[in-house]
Design goal:
It contains 16 helices and four strands. The chain is mainly alpha-helical. A four-stranded mixed beta sheet has the order 2-1-3-4, sandwiched between helices. The chain starts with a helix and ends with a helix.
Length: 408
């Protein structure tokens, strides 16, 4: 047992040092920055396009006084529901030929007019392509109704007392924290658990792994490689969390203190995040390492790892059932199922302040990690040295027949 531990530690130290002290590790730390940048750019573009698409422009043919009353009604409505979902109003003075003016406005591109409102507030008429846009018609009805009434009417005094938080806001914020933490855990595990594959394929191709296998047990090599990449990944995780907290502190007014606090508190939540990341990484990293032992080329790795990746996506979807429904049967099943338990329990930590379920879950996950490592090490030992071309089953059968014939 001591020889196994020493051998695994030697492999882990070797792989960890080779990974962390290499120049490529700097690019590894910068890896999450590029998806964030691209996501921010495309999210901004999508938000801009969506805001322009969902805010139709209505041309209002009316005297200035009536148009001002409509604009005032729109301003009062915007105070209640916000600016984004409301239509934009553009005023035009009436012309002699109303039908010609309507056709010209509907053909206008700057701004792109969705409909034309005429007839004033007393006898309004709306013309436009509104068959698939009942929301615009409903908004204009509200605006006209509000513009017809006196400005002081329908606006009672309402005494408002603001509090720091309420149950509704806490549940919403904690559910959002749970979703974001699950997505981060899933993406990090998916990205980092494949790192062991490239290193294993490289060592199998240049026969280094066979030299190492002659000196130490294969099981120790399997465990050492897995924990080496786990240590490097945890180091990267700590760097990313620290950098993110520093960035929020510098950019956001009030810093990290303004973020919604998880149910267990930020220190415990971050500690559980690292632990559940380690458990999730060991579960899926062992699967990818077994795939790497079965394959001898990068193409075989890609083909064999695709079902595992799709399986991770399905498990992520299963674990997401915990968000907002901690007591449901699906949520309990996701917390108990070993492969989805880390992501499900991390979401539970954001929404529920109880600590004892996490202690039980960590022990349960550790049991399955030990079992999967045991099975994975056995499969690794059987397949890792078979790096040459494989003999087809019918050729093996023919050779057995030839040997049997010589013996007889």
């Amino acid at each position: 047992m001591m020889r196994f531990i020493r051998s695994a530690f030697v492999i882990a130290r070797r792989d960890f040092t080779a990974t962390v002290l290499s120049k490529a590790f700097i690019f590894f730390l910068l890896g999450p920055l590029f998806p964030l940048l691209f996501g921010g750019v495309f999210a901004g573009i999508g938000t801009n396009v969506a805001s322009q698409a969902k805010r139709p422009v209505v041309a209002v043919i009316a005297p200035k006084a009536e148009f001002d009353r409509l604009q005032a009604a729109r301003g009062r409505l915007a105070e209640a529901v916000g600016e984004d979902p409301l239509v934009d109003l553009v005023g035009y003075r009436p012309e002699a030929d109303l039908s010609v003016q309507q056709k010209r406005l509907l053909a206008t591109r700057q701004p792109p007019v969705r409909a034309v409102l005429s007839g004033g507030i007393d006898h309004p008429k709306l013309v436009g392509a509104l068959a698939a846009d009942p929301g615009t018609v409903g908004q204009l009805r509200l605006l006209i109704s509000e513009a017809r009434s006196p400005d002081a009417a329908g606006a009672p005094e309402l005494e408002v007392t603001n509090v720091a938080a309420s149950t509704g806001t806490l549940d919403r914020d904690r559910a959002l924290t749970a979703q974001l933490s699950q997505v981060a855990l899933f993406l990090l595990t998916l990205m980092l658990s494949t790192m062991v594959l490239s290193q294993l394929i490289e060592e199998k191709s240049n026969k280094v792994i066979e030299i190492i296998a002659a000196a130490i047990p294969i099981d120790a090599m399997f465990v050492g490689k897995l924990f080496a990449m786990l240590s490097a990944s945890v180091l990267g995780l700590v760097v990313w969390i620290s950098s993110g907290a520093l960035l929020i502190q510098l950019v956001k007014h009030g810093g990290v203190a303004t973020l919604p606090v998880p149910a267990v508190g930020w220190p415990m939540f971050l500690a559980l995040g690292v632990i559940y990341f380690a458990m999730n990484y060991l579960l899926f990293g062992a699967a990818f390492l077994m795939i790497g032992a079965q394959a001898s080329t990068a193409r075989e790795v890609q083909t064999m790892s695709m079902p595992v990746t799709f399986g991770q996506v399905l498990i992520f979807g299963f674990a997401s059932t915990v968000v907002g429904s901690l007591g449901s049967a699906k949520a309990i099943a996701a917390s108990v199922f070993p492969l989805s338990s880390p992501m499900a329990m991390l979401a539970r930590a954001a929404q529920d302040g109880a600590i004892w379920p996490h202690l039980a879950a960590i022990l349960w996950q550790a049991l399955w990690v030990a079992l999967i490592l045991r099975v994975g090490a056995q499969l690794f030992r059987k397949t890792v040295l078979k790096s040459g071309p494989r003999t087809k089953w019918w050729r093996r059968a023919a050779k057995v027949g030839e040997v049997a014939g010589h013996i007889s």
